[in-house]
Hints:
Layout: H1 2-48, E1 54-63, E2 67-76, E3 90-99, H2 104-108, E4 117-123, H3 130-135, E5 142-148, E6 153-160, E7 163-167, E8 170-174, E9 177-184, E10 189-202, E11 211-225, E12 231-246, E13 251-266, E14 270-284, E15 287-302, H4 303-321, H5 331-346, E16 350-360, E17 363-373, H6 384-391, E18 392-402, H7 403-416, H8 422-442, E19 447-449, E20 452-460, E21 463-466, E22 469-472, H9 473-484, H10 508-516, E23 517-518, H11 523-532, E24 538-541, E25 546-550, E26 559-566, E27 573-582, H12 590-599, E28 604-607, E29 613-620, E30 625-626, H13 627-650
Antiparallel strand pairs: 1-2, 2-3, 3-4, 4-5, 5-6, 6-9, 7-8, 8-10, 9-10, 10-11, 11-12, 12-13, 13-14, 14-15, 15-16, 16-17, 17-18, 18-20, 19-20, 20-21, 21-22, 23-30, 24-25, 25-26, 26-27, 27-29, 28-29
Helix pairs in contact: 4-5, 6-9, 7-8
Amino acid sequence: MKKSVAITLGVVIVGAGSWVGATWYTGKRIEESAQRHLAEANEKLAKITPLFGLRIDQLKYERSLFSTQARYGLSFVKSDNTPDGMPAGMVEFDASIEHGPFPKSALARGAIAPKLAFVHTEIAKTDNIKELFELTKDVAPLSGDAVVSYSGFATSTTRIAPVKVAHEGNAVDFSGMTVNGTFDRSLQAVTAHALMETLSVDGAKSNDPIKMTMSGLTMDVNSRMGKFGLSIGDSNIKIKRIDVTKPDADVKVSLDNLGYGVKLGEDDKTINAEATYQTGDITLNDVALGNGQAVVKLAKLDGSAVKQLSDTYNQIVRQYMMGASDEGLKDEQFDALLDNAGKLLNGNPSFSIDPISWKTTKGESKLTFALDLANPPNVKDLTPQEIAVKAIKQIDATLVISKPMVRDLMVQYAMKKEGVDAEKAGTEADEQMRSLSGMAEMLNVGKNDGDNIVGKFHFADGMGDLNGTKIPADELFAGLLGATGLDNMDGMDGEDEPEGMDPDQEEPAATAASADLMQDFDLDTVNAMLTDMSYAPRKEDGEAGPVLILEPANTGASDLRVELLCNDFTEKCHDLVLTATYSGKKPMSLKAINAWNQEYRWTRAYLDDKNQAVLQMDMNSEGGIGKENLQILLNTFFSIAEDFSAASKAAPAK
């Protein structure tokens, strides 16, 4: 019996001694690795924050047998290029480290297997952040726990404390946030799930009154280091609901189930990316606007080229931010970017939007777009236009606009926002949809196909096709590159200029094209055109801009005018409305007006509140409108106005 007790006691003593020895060894190992990990962290921070610099310093490290107490400080490292106003001082963190192999807090959480350490960290209460502790009622604003295994795998929980604050009638209520995650050092893999229950802001008493409530915010990450040295995996953000109210503007918006997600994948040679945006039902001032989504994809990107492009770009950004170079890209950097861009195109990558869509109970409108690319040979010897033509293998795009969906939104808005009755709102919406459908066909941006307006564009083998109209590549890309100013890049050095021509002077054709294109409707230009057409305009001031009163001439109208609608802030007039009013002894019948609207879709006709027949046509200059096109549209309206005059006299009301 005594022998058995002695053996048991010996086992206990040996076990206890082994545990103490293992605990001492673990604490020593943690201390030895702490400096290495600190240096690694500072190296990474220096790379990702070159403009101002972040640095972590170890302020205290006191190791005992079973635990270690440490304090670290996070501060900005300023340089000559650091922006003014960067905060001074240091944010300090206290770390309590329980040594393995059996840290008591890890055991309390059910971690029975041996662990390297249990670490509790929280932000320290210092003078420079004491106001933050006041907001959290003296609870650490940021804290976390982590269980670390000997292999480098860690599980953690991070907490952001709740905040409630009120000031001069305004208030913020933040429920706090919890983040649970894991980290695998060997795979450089991270998983995380964050949850914030509510955030509400009541700024009703501020100069710009607003109320906002957000609920059910979640963030998820699942990533690892890929074979090309880039993080791959999935990440997403979701918000269950957002409500925003602006009492002074009578605006109330609610959004359900917002989401954003990114997926990055790889195979032996390429990287693929997909970004998804979505929103549930959106309501504006009790008008149900519907819900939408967008899916953007990049496929067959050469993995090595993406990594090299990323490294070159980051190097250029760091040099620029640190003031190492102010002379732009160096030749070798530009060559590296061009070379890697070529490698990126070697795999024939593709870009697609599949789809961008918006849906209501009445229908769905959507856009799909697909772009296939290739690597042009001898790219350094090509002009921007030649690069564009040779780099694009194929484009396919389709836009579908649901007429019932758009009409329903118009009706809802007119009824709930403007107080129009259902019948009148429906009539006005029908008129606007007929006008929209007619303008789409007139400008060849879409064809009417039952309940939809459908626009299609295809490009391949140097030829574009827009709704059946052929557009040669030279014409297509000359216009696109001309709008961006890239069409003349090959001549920037002044070489190959025609003899006797000033290198700084635009080519005559480019100057003429630029002069012919108007970005807004200029009163003097419109007035001159109308004068040349013998309409003798007389200017008056309207509510939204100048109005030109015209002599009716052959239109048969009792009143003929052109209104320029201008922006109050920019004073640019992007909209122009032509109106012809006809006052006869007998009003035009609604049946005749409806028949007219069905045939002449690019104008709209209606009876005003005096039972007078009115014919209108709208024009918009955003994106540019040529003077010749404007002249054609003016002539078209006046010609149609003559036909409308005849129709109004031939179809009196019964």
